[in-house]
């Protein structure tokens, strides 16, 4: 039986999911309102949580990223109601995820059991439903607004560091150097760090406007149901399932961008030296002895606060 056949996606279930997504509110930041009306280049959807340590990390990372944003780039943050309506200190739109994000299965913390948790669902499990919810919700909200659609979308965790101008420059250069039709954001493409079975979402996932609209428009509700099902009953990590979900679509291309990293500069991968013909490019940069590019643009700083501050300081001192 195919993966499609194993999940009973029918019109009733899809309608429930569509209604749940549509009912969730977004608090649009005043600084974003005019940008959305005039046209956004990059719309960054970020996942965070109400836990004070998570919000502290989210603020720390965002402060480091903001100087690299272009004048037409915006942030949003997807989290629960207690986070959205708190004194969170984050810049950008706030997307409220409901306790039943697909309109079918409940993900209430400490009440519902998750298989992977071997007990009640915790914040790290529920967070995995926020990744698809955030982009599905915001693509549909922007579409319904009548405003110009963002040219690019980025899905990131709150511990993903990205130098936005370096990232957008790398994507533009990739398209030009490989002869892609232009403009690139009108092509069915997306970018992730070099990865194996999944998309290694710790380094972020970037989608063109055309691809994001196809993904959300054609299978957004199915994807949301599938991800909530995985959170409740299987392996929750959303990025491990992206390639499987994308098989439900045709005509797209997922590109491994060497400037995107699913690891931190202090990872053992930066000390690794390939032997013989192992197929990995190794570039000695100012922050990583075995980098995958000369101008890295994203990193997964999955560290405690002192480690994150140290890594951010090193990256910024080196202009990265």
Morphology: globular
Cα gyration radius (Å): 19 Å
What's the helical proportion of residues? 25-40%
User: What multimeric state do the chains show?
Assistant: single chain
- Count of discrete domains: 1
User: What portion of residues belong to β-strands?
Assistant: 5-15%
**Mean pLDDT score:** 90
Question: Could you state the order of secondary-structure elements as H and E?
Answer: HHEHEHEHEEEHEEHEEHHEEH
Structure summarized in a few sentences:
The protein is an alpha/beta fold and 320 residues long.
What does the model show?
By secondary structure, the protein is of the alpha/beta class. The protein has a single domain (about 5-260), classed as Spore Coat Polysaccharide Biosynthesis Protein SpsA, Chain A. The chain contains ten helices and twelve strands. The protein has helices spanning about 5, 10-25, 30-40, 50-65, 80-85, 125-145, 165-175, 210-235, 240-245, 305-315; strands at about 25, 40-45, 75-80, 95, 115, 120, 150-155, 160, 190, 205-210, 255, 300. The strands form three sheets. The protein has an eight-stranded mixed beta sheet with strand order 1-4-3-2-7-10-9-11. It has a two-stranded antiparallel sheet with strand order 5-6. Helix 6 packs antiparallel against helix 8 (about 210-235). It is globular. Mean pLDDT is about 90; it is low at about 1-5.
């Amino acid at each position: 039986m195919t993966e499609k056949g194993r999940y009973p996606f029918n019109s009733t279930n899809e309608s429930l999911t569509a209604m749940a997504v549509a009912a969730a509110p977004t608090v649009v930041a005043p600084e974003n309102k005019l940008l959305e009306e005039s046209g956004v280049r990059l719309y960054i959807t970020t996942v965070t949580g109400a836990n004070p340590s998570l919000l502290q990390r989210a603020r720390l990372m965002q402060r480091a990223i903001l100087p690299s944003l272009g004048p037409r780039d915006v942030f949003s943050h997807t989290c629960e109601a207690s986070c959205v309506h708190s004194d969170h200190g984050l810049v950008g739109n706030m997307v409220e995820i409901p306790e039943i994000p697909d309109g079918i299965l409940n993900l209430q913390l400490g009440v519902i059991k998750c298989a992977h948790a071997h007990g009640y669902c915790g914040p790290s499990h529920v967070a995995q439903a926020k990744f698809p919810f955030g982009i599905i919700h915001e693509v549909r909200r922007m579409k319904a607004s009548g405003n110009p659609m963002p040219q690019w979308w980025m899905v990131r965790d709150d511990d993903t560091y990205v130098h936005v101008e370096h990232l957008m420059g790398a994507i533009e250069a990739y398209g030009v150097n490989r002869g892609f039709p232009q403009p690139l954001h009108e092509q069915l493409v997306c970018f992730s760090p070099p990865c194996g079975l999944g998309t290694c979402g710790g380094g972020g996932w970037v989608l063109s406007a055309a691809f994001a609209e196809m993904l959300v428009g054609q299978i957004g509700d199915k994807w949301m149901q599938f991800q909530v099902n995985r959170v409740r009953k299987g392996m929750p990590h959303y990025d491990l399932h992206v390639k499987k979900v994308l098989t439900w679509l045709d005509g797209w291309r997922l590109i491994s961008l060497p400037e995107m990293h699913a690891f931190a500069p202090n990872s053992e991968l930066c000390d690794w030296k390939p032997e013989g013909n192992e197929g990995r490019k190794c570039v000695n940069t100012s922050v990583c002895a075995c980098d995958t590019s000369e101008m890295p643009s994203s990193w997964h700083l999955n560290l405690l606060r002192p480690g994150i501050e140290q890594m951010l300081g090193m990256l910024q001192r080196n202009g990265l």
